[in-house]
Specification:
The complex is a heterodimer of chains A (273) and B (300).
Chain A: H1 15-18, E1 26-37, E2 40-51, E3 55-59, H2 66-73, E4 83-91, E5 94-95, H3 101-107, E6 108-111, H4 123-133, H5 139-152, H6 156-159, H7 172-184, E7 190-194, H8 202-215, E8 220-224, H9 228-234, E9 237-242, E10 245-251, H10 252-257, H11 262-268
Parallel strand pairs in A: 3-8, 3-9, 6-7, 7-8
Antiparallel strand pairs in A: 1-2, 1-4, 4-5, 9-10
Chain B: H1 2-11, H2 14-49, H3 51-57, E1 67-68, E2 73-74, H4 77-108, H5 111-125, H6 129-146, H7 155-179, H8 183-191, H9 196-225, H10 228-233, H11 251-258, H12 265-299
Antiparallel strand pairs in B: 1-2
Helix pairs in contact in B: 2-12, 3-12, 4-7, 4-9, 5-7, 6-7, 7-9, 8-9, 9-12, 11-12
Classes of the chains: A alpha/beta (273), B mainly alpha (300).
Chain lengths: 273, 300
């Protein structure tokens, strides 16, 4: 593994995201989305457009509803007993809330806060899990996809000699990249990441950020993060959420230099949160 | 310096405490020792009482299928066969049912329904086996006959009753282990586009497998030793038949039925020999279960 340069500059914007992105077509849009757990309302009329092949970061203090928002996008929110959502979510021009959630999730993949490789499966089996669900059983195809996905997740060189070792034997950062490879293997159009680095050290975090910048050429990425520097480093667009409300949404560069809302300014300058 | 201070702090009240410690240790060891002693005494007594049988038949007792108290010829094979076959039949029926019920209770049933069903299942575990035997005689046996079984009583009937008895164990334990499957793992499979069944098959069952294997062996141990319900429906005929509908006999049942009426010393000794065999079989099954759980556990 070549020594990786990790960009730890606080608040400065790396070259990748400083150029004004071309306006890409819209991959997903959210209109008047409300979500609640039982009687507790957690999202209030959120409107959002996620552009294709860009990274959109969702930031905000704990409990602001950013995880709930991202979990609505692939309808994992509904999997929690008592959780409901209404409004419109469009994937391209299809209504995501009317699709079969099983089919939607094959197009909108997700990586979770804590690395969660399947403990009874090997590294290769973990990556292939989604393909096997889709009925792929040709060994050559599986092996090829496993390699390709692990390469895209920048993990191949570290695990190519131990593909049959258990996935849980890897380090935390490797496990998280394994989970990313697993999500990428089914070729989703959108990849959602729910605070993917919150359980990782800065070096592992740096690797994941690097890999996000690589894969965004091929798919749309939405990342929830606690870490504003991370949002600044990896995203073109940023959404700022507060108490279930979307306060501001715009180009990351703009939001971190000239926020339009006072609350955004207070948050990104560290006056609260 | 510091350690010396600590050492002294530990030693000063130590001399008095050490006597108390010793007393405590001896008492606890004694209590634990009683358990070992009781188990050892039991085995020794069984071996001693059955010595004359082992002397006259040797290990051939284990594969002789004649049971003739009148001419004092004894072999345990028909009973060994009956115990093994009825218990395995019970598992064959109860494992799919119990695991299926546990999946329904954890993954599909609304919480309130699951609570009511769990209560009912736990109640089932508390039914005395003689009551289940009565149910067997009054419902199962006529039912089997109506379905075309020649006698109604027999190996399959015993297997059904035993399945009924172990079902609550398998369901309850499987449900407990399924409830321990971490939510993030299930979510990972859902997020890949897994259906509910795919999540159960791909994540929950593999995660819970060692617990399920444990439940199966616990049930097997229970079924092997079950006496009353089996005696009431197995037919009590010391014969090995190919047909599962034919009457048979089990080790526990023959001891319960004949011990009080054993006329000769040889008969009594043979019954105790059956008891010893049963005990060894149960210990071997339990040991195998432990070993298997240990292997499964260490692989993870």
């Amino acid at each position: 593994m070549a020594a990786t340069e990790i960009d730890m500059r606080p608040m400065s914007l790396p070259a990748e995201s400083s150029a004004t992105p071309k306006a890409m077509p819209i991959a997903m849009s959210v209109r008047d989305l409300r979500a609640s757990y039982g009687a507790a309302s957690v999202l209030k009329d959120v409107n959002l457009e996620v552009r294709e092949r860009t990274v959109t970061a969702i930031i905000g203090p704990s409990g602001c509803g950013k995880s709930t928002l991202i979990r609505c996008l692939n309808r994992m929110h509904e999997a929690i007993p008592g959780a409901t959502c209404d409004g419109d979510i469009l994937l391209g021009d299809r209504n995501a809330l009317a699709l079969d959630p099983v089919l939607l999730r094959r197009e909108v993949g997700m990586v979770f806060q804590r690395p969660n490789p399947f403990p009874t499966m090997t590294i290769a089996q973990n990556v292939a899990a989604g393909l096997v669900l889709n009925g792929v059983c040709d060994h050559a195809v599986l092996a090829e996809t496993v390699e390709k996905s692990l390469r895209r997740a920048a993990l191949w060189d570290e695990v190519k000699d131990k593909l049959d070792a258990p996935g849980v034997g890897l380090s935390g950062g490797q496990q998280q990249r394994l989970c990313i490879a697993r999500a990428l293997a089914v070729e989703p159009r959108v990849l959602l990441l729910d605070e993917p680095c919150s359980a990782l050290d800065p070096i592992a975090t740096g690797r994941i950020e690097e890999l996000l910048l690589q894969i965004k050429d091929q798919l749309t990425v939405v990342i929830v993060t606690h870490n504003m520097q991370q949002a600044a480093r990896v995203s073109e667009y940023t959404v700022f959420m507060l108490m279930g409300e979307m306060v501001e949404y715009g180009l990351t560069r703009q939001m971190f230099t000239k926020p339009t809302d006072k609350r955004t300014e207070d948050y990104i300058t560290g006056r609260f949160g | 310096m510091v350690t010396a201070v600590f050492d002294r702090a530990r030693r000063v009240p130590g001399s008095r405490e050490r006597a108390g410690d010793l007393l405590f240790r001896l008492t606890i060891s004694g209590v634990a020792g009683i358990i070992l002693l009781a188990a050892g005494a039991l085995a020794w007594q069984l071996a001693r009482e059955s010595a004359s049988t082992w002397k006259s038949f040797g290990l051939a007792f284990l594969w002789t299928s004649t049971w003739d108290p009148v001419s004092d010829v004894f072999g345990v094979l028909p009973f060994l066969y009956g115990t093994a076959v009825s218990s395995l039949l019970a598992l064959l029926i109860a494992v799919p049912l119990g695991v299926g019920a546990a999946i329904f209770l954890t993954e599909l049933a609304p919480k309130r329904l699951a609570d009511i069903l769990m209560f009912a299942i736990e109640l089932l575990a508390a039914v005395p086996s003689v009551i289940l035997g009565l149910m067997g005689i009054f419902i199962l046996v006529p039912g089997m006959r109506a379905l075309g079984a020649p006698y109604g009583v027999g190996m399959l009937t015993a297997g059904l009753i035993l399945a009924f008895m172990v079902l609550p164990y398998i369901t309850t334990i499987t449900r407990e282990v399924l409830l321990t499957v971490p939510r993030p793992l299930k979510e990972a499979m859902y997020a890949l586009g897994g259906t509910r069944w795919e999540v159960v098959r791909g994540v929950s069952l593999p995660y819970a497998r060692s617990g399920i294997v444990g439940a199966v062996f616990l049930s097997l141990g229970r079924a092997l030793g079950e006496t009353m319900a089996v005696t009431m429906v197995i037919g009590n005929t010391p014969k090995i038949s190919a047909s599962l509908l034919a009457p048979g006999y089990s080790m526990a049942a023959v001891i319960a039925n004949e011990l009080a009426e054993a006329a000769s010393d040889a008969h009594l000794s043979a019954l105790v020999a059956i008891g010893l065999t049963l005990m060894v079989v149960t210990i071997v099954v339990n040991g195998a279960a432990r070993l298997m759980l240990y292997r499964l556990g260490s692989r993870k």
